[in-house]
From TrEMBL:
Keyword Chloroplast found: no
Name of one Pfam family that matches: Exo_endo_phos
Name of the protein this chain belongs to: Exodeoxyribonuclease III
Cofactor requirements of the protein: Mg(2+); Mn(2+)
Organism: Flavisphingopyxis soli
Residues under site feature: Transition state stabilizer: 150
Gene3D superfamilies assigned to the protein according to its UniProt record, in alphabetical order: Endonuclease/exonuclease/phosphatase
CC cofactor note: Probably binds two magnesium or manganese ions per subunit.
InterPro entries: AP_endonuc_1, Endo/exonu/phosph_ase_sf, Endo/exonuclease/phosphatase, ExoIII-like
One GO BP annotation of this record: DNA repair
Source species taxonomy: Bacteria, Pseudomonadati, Pseudomonadota, Alphaproteobacteria, Sphingomonadales
Length: 257
């Protein structure tokens, strides 16, 4: 089975591209980020028309996450949002049981500019995510925490170390928070498949980043031990970044036995 993730960067603006990708690749489960729509504006019928059921956690104009499942097995919501900051109204996390898996769609804060309150929020959010992730590990279920982490974990995960050196995505604190999750027992699927790095999932719209292949890897799929034992492949659907009116991210996916 194939579980995928796609930061669509506005579900209404890029719905044709999203439907195109779903129909061409047919992932069993697809996690979406940056849907940028209020709950009532989510285009559910567009997905049911092509055989997908959905749950979502929306926010008007910003953020927003969703989980789609192909066929009759609708995702059963487990949790939306993370505990730890009652005043946090950002729609960045939704978790569900679907097809025998625990799946969370994640849109982690960017954190720029740093230093500053946005970076502090990013680091707190990562610790809140780690707390939830450890609770999931304790359940010993096949689980996947996938989405846009806004973290460049290694130097070989970016086209240019100097260009990103001051960015919140590549700060030592961001990397350390990500590595703490790996240390808890999660497996980075794309890194496992591409240990030498050099694989990008994001290309900015500015400065000809796509034609120059000036990208970096910030979309990650973390697998619990029970899921990692079943992994057979993990890749990036890079070509979709080059299509007309594309998202600035490419879809990523992992296959499990």
């Amino acid at each position: 089975m194939r579980i995928a993730s796609f930061n669509i960067n506005g579900i209404k603006a890029r719905l044709p591209r999203l439907i195109e990708w779903l129909e061409e690749t047919r992932p069993d489960i697809a996690c979406l980020q940056e849907i940028k729509t209020a709950d009532e504006g989510f285009p559910e019928s567009a997905f049911t028309d092509i055989g997908y059921q959905a749950i979502w956690h929306g926010q008007k104009g910003f953020n927003g996450v969703a989980i789609l499942a192909r066929g009759d097995d609708k995702p059963v919501e487990v949790q939306r949002g993370l505990d730890g900051e009652p005043d946090d109204v950002h729609s960045r996390y939704i978790e569900a049981d679907v097809m025998g898996l625990r799946v969370a769609s994640i849109y982690l804060p960017n954190g720029n500019p740093q230093p500053g309150p946005k970076f502090d929020y990013k680091l707190r959010w990562m610790e809140r995510l780690r707390t939830r992730a450890r609770a999931i590990l304790a359940e010993e279920v096949p689980a996947l925490l996938i989405g846009d982490y806004n973290v460049i974990p290694h130097d070989d995960d970016t086209y240019s170390i100097p260009a990103m050196a001051d960015d919140a995505l590549m700060q030592p604190e961001s990397r350390a928070a990500y590595n703490r999750m790996l240390g808890d027992g999660w497996t980075d699927a794309l890194r496992t498949r591409n240990p030498a790095g050099g694989v990008w999932t994001y290309w900015d719209y500015q400065a000809g980043a796509w034609p120059r292949d000036a990208g970096f890897r910030i979309d990650h799929m973390l697998l619990s031990p029970q899921a990692a034992d079943r992994m057979t492949d993990a890749r990036v659907d890079k070509e979709y970044r080059g299509r007309e009116k594309a998202s600035d991210h490419a879809p990523v996916w992992v296959e499990l036995r």
